């Protein structure tokens, strides 16, 4: 059953890539025309059962060895085109190839970098990493304004580690325990409408910053 579901997911991913190929090509050309850096950004993330994989994104930032692992609102590394791509989540579209490769699903806990995963409480880590990471999840909806929240913190990374990451883990844990096709559909629908500015978080996992 799991194999057939994964096969169906890959077929849908392939079809989505074909349908969106003009948009993918247009974004790639725009990045190439406005930057001398590679069109794609690759980063190692932690996936199913703790296995590392390379996530793909359209490049939206200037390369920097000194920048933090998280992106804060108003980050000077983000290009003008990059800000537009981020606003409409176009930068995430290359992750459809991660779905096609079986490394990700359309819905699932967003994958983190290894040094943050190492800080997960052991029990939560086992639960969250028991499913494939996704293009979107409940935390993506609850913290759709994450970069703006981080911009208000005096120490963005500390705020992320002490508040945002634990909140995301609670949402991811709830999702894994109660996951279903219906919940996945609601999250996908909420993501699509959220990109357009119509914010909606599927209950019962709504959370907000205090």
Topology:
Elements lengths: L1 H33 L5 E7 L5 E7 L21 H8 L8 H5 L4 E3 L6 H4 L4 H7 L5 E3 L1 H5 L3 H6 L4 H23 L2 H15 L15
Parallel strand pairs: 3-4
Antiparallel strand pairs: 1-2
List its traits.
single chain, 210 residues, mainly alpha, two-stranded antiparallel ribbon, two-stranded parallel ribbon, 9 helices, 4 strands, 10% strand
Could you please describe the fold and organization of this structure?
It is a single chain. This protein has 210 residues and is mainly α. The chain is 50% helix and 10% strand. It contains nine helices and four strands, in the order αββααβααβαααα. The chain has helices at residues 2-34, 80-87, 96-100, 114-117, 122-128, 138-142, 146-151, 156-178, 181-195; strands at residues 40-46, 52-58, 105-107, 134-136. The strands form two sheets. Strands 1-2 form a two-stranded antiparallel ribbon. Strands 3-4 form a two-stranded parallel sheet. Strand 1 (40-46) and strand 2 (52-58) form a beta hairpin. Helix 5 (122-128) crosses helix 8. The longest helix has 33 residues, at 2-34. The protein is globular. The model has no long low-confidence stretch (mean pLDDT 89).
């Amino acid at each position: 059953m799991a194999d057939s579901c994964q096969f169906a997911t890959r077929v849908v991913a392939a079809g989505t890539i074909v349908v969106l190929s003009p948009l993918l090509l247009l974004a790639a050309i725009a990045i190439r025309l406005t930057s001398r850096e590679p069109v794609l950004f690759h980063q190692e993330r932690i996936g199913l059962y703790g296995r590392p994989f390379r996530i793909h994104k359209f490049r939206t930032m200037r390369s920097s060895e000194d920048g933090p692992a998280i992106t804060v609102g108003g980050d000077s590394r983000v290009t003008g085109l990059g800000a537009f791509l981020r606003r409409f989540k176009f930068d995430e579209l290359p992750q459809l190839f991660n779905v096609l490769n079986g490394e990700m699903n359309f819905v699932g806990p967003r994958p983190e970098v290894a040094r943050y995963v190492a800080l997960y409480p052991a029990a939560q880590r086992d639960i969250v990493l028991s499913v494939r990471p996704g293009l979107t999840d409940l935390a993506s909806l609850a913290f759709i304004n994450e970069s703006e929240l981080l911009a208000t913190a005096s120490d963005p990374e500390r705020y992320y580690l002490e508040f945002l990451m634990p909140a995301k883990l609670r949402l991811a844990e709830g999702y894994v325990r109660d996951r279903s096709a219906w919940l996945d559909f609601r999250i996908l629908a909420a993501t699509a409408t959220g990109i357009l500015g119509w914010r909606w978080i599927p209950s019962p996992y709504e959370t907000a910053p205090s």
